[in-house]
Design brief:
With 151 residues, this protein is mostly beta strands. The protein contains no helices and eleven strands. The chain is globular and about 50 Å long. The N terminus is likely disordered.
Length: 151
């Protein structure tokens, strides 16, 4: 369920795809996040991030009885700047506040169980509406709290 747009949203462009399941929130032509709703589920495989993003996020859909062939991943050297992260709400509800690089509030959205967000740029904060469990996925290795700039 989407939260009504805030005053800060007036300067934000939101591109909707996949029947309002996916919202890409941008500010001044810069992607802040890609929000993927759990319901309704996708009918087919779809990736939401472009191939050049530091972290990839998508749904892969398989029919019953199919298999994913066993495999391993070859070593690939990558140079990554910054820290993108994906959060999946495993339980609960929360509000996500999205900020531009100047730390101005750009948008607020409600997230519920099963929803996921890829945080691409800018800043973010969370307000928990219920007891919440988040699954966080980001690049490693983690170098410590000095990676975060709190504001």
């Amino acid at each position: 369920m989407s939260t009504p747009m805030t005053a800060a949203d007036a300067q934000t462009q939101a591109a909707w795809t996949a029947g309002d399941r996916v919202e890409t929130i941008t500010h001044q032509d810069k992607v802040l996040c890609i929000l993927v709703r759990a319901i309704p589920g996708p009918a087919q495989t779809e990736f939401y991030t472009p191939n050049d993003y530091n972290l990839q996020m998508g749904n892969i859909v398989y029919p019953a009885g199919s298999a994913i062939p066993r495999h391993s991943h070859r070593p690939v050297t990558r140079t990554v700047t910054g820290t993108s992260e994906v959060l999946v709400v495993q339980k609960g509800r929360m509000l996500i506040d999205l900020y531009d690089d100047a730390r101005n509030l750009v948008a607020t959205r409600e997230m519920a169980t099963g929803d996921a967000v890829a945080l691409v740029s800018g800043g973010h904060g969370f307000r928990l509406l219920e007891d919440t469990i988040l699954l966080e996925i980001k690049q490693g290795p983690y170098s410590g709290i000095q990676e975060k700039d709190r504001f």
